[in-house]
Amino acid sequence: MEGLPPEALEQVAAYFQALSEPTRLQILNLLRSGERSVGELAQLCGYTSANISRHLAFLTQQGLVERESRGTSGYYRIVDPNVYALCDLVCGNIARQLERRASGRAVFARTAPAAPKARARRT
User: Could you tell me which residue ranges the HTH arsR-type domain spans (predicted)?
Assistant: First the structure.
């Protein structure tokens, strides 16, 4: 990104904005196995077709998916599968961060004195 003019950085930010919404990530994940109709995506995501269509329009605008009309249905597919490499890279980074945090907490768990056990009440 070094040396990019502000207009180009705005395009990069818009691309990442498309990936910043969990429903859109869910849609992209579902499209990983192949094209799907809006109705299929809506059913699998648990949202209305109108909601999914809105997200698909944004993903189309950013060049991540493309639409093909067949009769009265619209079918979507991934334009550039490299988006999955980017998502996998981010997921791997998050997993490593969580592992580091967990191992840091584990050190304290080994050195902390055991909590006293609660005594059972007699009735």
Answer: 4-98
- The pLDDT tens digits along the chain (123 residues) read 889 999 999 999 999 999 999 999 999 999 999 999 999 999 999 999 999 999 999 999 999 999 999 998 899 999 999 999 999 999 999 999 999 888 887 777 766 666 666 666 665
pTM of the model: 0.78
Q: How far is Cα 84 from Cα 22, in angstroms, rounded to an integer?
A: 15
User: Under a CB-based contact definition with an 8 Å cutoff, are residues 41 and 53 in contact?
Assistant: no
Contacts of 1 (CB under 8 A, 6+ apart): 9, 12
Which CATH number is 6-80's, of 1.20.1050.40, 1.10.3720.10, 1.10.10.10, 1.20.1070.10?
1.10.10.10
Q: Where do we find the tokens 């791997």?
A: 92
